[in-house]
Fold this sequence. Notes:
With 244 residues, the chain is mostly helical. It is 71% helix and 2% strand.
Amino acid sequence: MENRAIGEVVAEDYRTATVFKSYNIDFCCQGGRSIAEACEKKGVSIWELLKDLEKAQSEGLDPAVDFKTWPLDVLVNYIEQRHHKYVEKRSIEIKPFLDKLCRVHGERHPELLEINGLFSTAISALSQHMKKEELVLFPYVRKMVKSEMSGEPIKMASFGEVHNPIGMMVYEHDAEGERFREISRLSNNYQCPPDGCNTYQVTFALLKEFEDDLHLHIHLENNILFPAAKPLEGRLKSQGLIEA
Length: 244
């Protein structure tokens, strides 16, 4: 178990995500690391973590949604409707709150200015990132699924093989993961200071929720969608269903 990739473990049972999160171990952007490697880097007991994983998986909870069993076209539709819409909605809600906090509390808490700047950069980058997925990568995934089901050939995408846009998406995921780790650090893990007002508390709670949703969003793509899209393309090529 200790040599398994974190992303694979979470992909099989999303309940384990809460365990990794409790140890401050990234299961989405850095999901390719083994459990042992992550524990060593964080300086946590691998045996304690494994015990907590076993407990999470054995408790009488409702089974987590098994996204790995979903057809890829259904999964990309879910990501768009659930996570892309969430980013769009929450971005326009959080930004005015952050602007207000900077005006009212920025002098006493200059870290708010940094947080606001990082969040502004994040929502701009995520907007462009999601457009590329919705206009380029996701339509191609849908075409591949349809081709495999119908046996009808499709044209090779203008970007070449699917690993090309996937590589860019993973790179951009890593950048956002790092950005939100810095936001979390600057906000003391989203802890409102003693002199913080209600807006302060609400804004930090929303930022934490935003990061949690982003972790699941990236996990679904990095650890489930992308690893399945590559062999799908390979199967279509072997059957002569992708034309140059």
